[in-house]
Amino acid sequence: MTDRAIPVLPSRSFDATIAFYGRLGFEAVHDDGWLILRRGTVQLEFYDAPDADPATSDAMCVLRVADVDALVADIRAAGVPEATVGCPRLHPVRREASGLRIGYLVDLDGTQLNLVEDAG
């Protein structure tokens, strides 16, 4: 097995999290007091946080993907709106000062996922 780090994110409801991320192409591979979702080689893990407040969440992680446009297309197809407030929401991909192409997804629990195209 290759060493790796995996984000652990809050979920107010595992059922809602599975439904939301399922529309984005993630599959639940474990749901027994701890939720693990996968989409290809991307894995997200969630802990039960029924009292989490999406409006004050500071949870975030980075998803480095080969094709950020394909991921964003799936997010749009799932009905996530482009917006600057509210949960969930999508901020479109832009080339940042770093030279990287980055978009942002805020999920239904207020977690910000930085969608980074990994050029290499």
Automatic annotation (TrEMBL):
Xref: Gene3D superfamilies? 2,3-Dihydroxybiphenyl 1,2-Dioxygenase, domain 1 (3.10.180.10)
Q: Which Pfam families match?
A: Glyoxalase
Q: Where is the VOC domain?
A: 1-118
Cited InterPro entries = Glyas_Bleomycin-R_OHBP_Dase, Glyas_Fos-R_dOase_dom, VOC_core
This protein is called: VOC domain-containing protein
